[in-house]
């Protein structure tokens, strides 16, 4: 009966050391695995061949996996490089943010100054317009006042003329009344004299 050692058999070329993982010992219990295969009905020779092939496959897979791994110092170096790059990127981003903030602040201050200038110009324009409107209103009020004075003077002149005309008409009426009264008195006196004469003639 053949006994299996705990260390798998590895064929290593001359002049080359065995891989690190393969020198650490077996990765499974080959004797127990052979016994399981024999209990399953496989002969000892076939079980030996299967275990050998399986051991070679496992060792080759682990060796390939080990070659793809990164050593701790290299991983730490890579991590440190990433940290340095990240810190550099972070400082650049902060610098850009600070620069953008300063630029935005200066732009905001410029816009505020322009807005204040526009407000001041608008206030001056409104004040100038209001002064012009007040001047026009005062001039219009003065013109209306002058026209009202002229109209009042004309109305007063017309009233005076009307009163003088009315006084003249009254005088004419009074004179006409006086003349009519004189004429009526004369006519009445003549008629009375004729009537007395006619009465004397027929007595």
Automatic annotation (TrEMBL):
Gene Ontology biological process terms in this record: mitochondrial respiratory chain complex IV assembly
Subcellular location: Membrane; Mitochondrion
Bilayer topology annotation: Single-pass membrane protein
Keyword Transmembrane: yes
A GO-annotated cellular component: mitochondrion
The entry's keywords: Coiled coil, Membrane, Mitochondrion, Transit peptide, Transmembrane, Transmembrane helix
Similarity annotation: Belongs to the CCDC90 family.
The name this protein goes by in its record: Protein FMP32, mitochondrial
Higher taxonomy: Eukaryota, Fungi, Dikarya, Basidiomycota, Ustilaginomycotina
